[in-house]
Amino acid sequence: MKKKIGACIPSLSQYPLLVVVSGPSGVGKDATLAKMKETGIPLYYAITATTRPMRPGEKNDIDYHFLSEEQFQQLVKAKQFLEWAKVYGNYYGVLKKEINEALDKGKDVIVKVDVQGATTIKRIAPDAVFIFLMPPSMQELIHRLERRHGKLDDDLNSRLSKAQEEIEALPLFDYVVVTHKDKLDVTATEIGSIITSEKCRVQPRMIILS
């Protein structure tokens, strides 16, 4: 049975939310959103566009919109992105039209971006809900990155250095959720609780995107 979000006074919970989930590389953003989908939390999960290569098990237009660099740049020129950035040699972006269509239908939208992207969205939509995923420790983050990218090298050192910078951006966010190993269900539940609380605000957040 799907969990119900926003079981509050109808006049207060009718405004759809834009939930922005961010955090350093390796913290578990993709895994967290996948677990939230499994639990049936009724959100519209915005799909990020990227030029990075598809990883084993990923599917186009489900995990990401996988684009060539030329296709991505065409969308940039057409101003189709709410935010976009080049991260570790690949481009990532959130399509504005996709989010607007979901919000217009009254759906709560959740989007996954890096901290740079969250900073951009904060300027455009300050009433969005910003959630920072935090590793239990830097040592745990190192272990996760090593499992994904191999032992320490220049790329991994770059990711760790950036992670430390991104954690310093924590005051930008409304909430912080620690992602513990093998406890994604707890992380998903905590984010669901945040969304429920936000839907019960006396003064609801109102999202307006140009």
Question: Secondary structure elements and their pairing?
Answer:
Blueprint: H1 10-13, E1 18-22, H2 29-39, E2 44-45, E3 48-50, E4 65-66, H3 69-77, E5 81-87, E6 90-95, H4 96-104, E7 109-112, H5 115-124, E8 129-134, H6 138-149, H7 154-167, E9 175-178, H8 184-199
Parallel strand pairs: 1-7, 1-8, 2-7, 3-4, 8-9
Antiparallel strand pairs: 3-6, 5-6
Helix pairs in contact: 2-8, 6-7
Q: Give the % helix.
A: 40-55%
Name the CATH homologous superfamily of the domain at 10-46 and 106-199: P-loop containing nucleotide triphosphate hydrolases
Topology, number of strands? 9
CA gyration radius, whole angstroms: 17 Å
Q: Under CATH, the topology of the domain at 10-46 and 106-199 is which?
A: Rossmann fold
Look at the structure and give the CATH class of the domain at 10-46 and 106-199: Alpha Beta
What is the mean predicted local confidence, pLDDT? Answer: 88
Distance between the termini: 36 Å
CATH architecture of the domain at 10-46 and 106-199: 3-Layer(aba) Sandwich
Low-pLDDT sequence parts: none
Strands side by side in the biggest sheet: 2-7-1-8-9
What is the overall shape? globular
Strand content range: 15-25%
Give the number of helices: 8
> How would you characterize the largest beta sheet?
5 strands, parallel
Order of helices and strands: HEHEEEHEEHEHEHHEH
Structural class: alpha/beta
